[in-house]
Amino acid sequence: MRLTVYSDYALRLMMYLALKGERLSTIAEIAKAYDISKTHLMKITHELAQKGLIETVRGRQGGMRLARSADEIGVGEIVRSCEPDFAIVPCMEKSGEIVCVVQPACVLKRALGAAAAAFLDVLDGYTLADLTRPAMPLRRLLALPEPDIHAGLPS
After folding, report:
1. Is residue 153, in this structure, part of any structural domain at all?
2. Residues 76-108: tens digit of each pLDDT
3. The pTM is what?
4. Which of 11, 13, 43, 51 is surrounded by the most beta carbons within 10 Å?
5. What pLDDT is stored for residue 126 in this prediction?
6. What pLDDT shows up at residue 88?
7. Are 128 and 78 in contact (CB under 8 A)?
8. Long-range contacts from 56-62, C-beta under 8 angstroms, 24+ separation
9. Residue 30 belongs to a domain
């Protein structure tokens, strides 16, 4: 199983926002921190905001932040919101078309479906907060400032 670049960027964006806590972040700063495309991040930001995972603030001092606490956002939830489907092989697609002559008697489809479900079950066992612990090494790598102990940011 392989996630799309879209999901990878969405997870990175969400981790960055988790590290920033309540403070607003911009697409430009996140793109710079990870050395990734601002255009891709704009699309991802829009979708994550529509799905209620982040909130955006317009205007000159605007930006984005998590819509809920990092310990309330599951990694599986993020991945499900970004991936179009988990059809590992064509016969698993929702079109209902028979694309293989052995499909009516095939156990492979069921096995791959179980594997995809197990993959998501593991991701459901992690929260966004789990991905950002310990925070200090990640902060250093992303050139984020040391947390203000009075701001309630993860350390």
Report:
1. no
2. 999 999 988 887 777 777 776 667 888 788 898
3. 0.86
4. 13
5. 98
6. 79
7. yes
8. 57/24, 61/24, 62/24, 62/26
9. yes
Cis peptide before 134 (omega within 30 of 0): yes
Contact (Cβ atoms closer than 8 angstroms) between residue 35 and residue 142: no
For 74, the domain range is 5-84+127-141
DSSP 142: T
- Type and span of the H or E element at 55: strand 54-57
In the three-class reduction of DSSP (H, G, I as helix; E, B as strand; rest coil), residue 71 is classed as helix
CB 131 within 8 A of CB 11: yes
CATH of the domain at 134: 1.10.10.10
Classify residue 17: in a domain, yes or no: yes
Q: Which residue has the tokens 């156990």?
A: 107
Q: Which strand (E) or helix (H) includes residue 63? A: strand 63-66
- Tell me if 39 is assigned to some domain: yes
- Considering its fold, how many domains does the chain have in total? 1
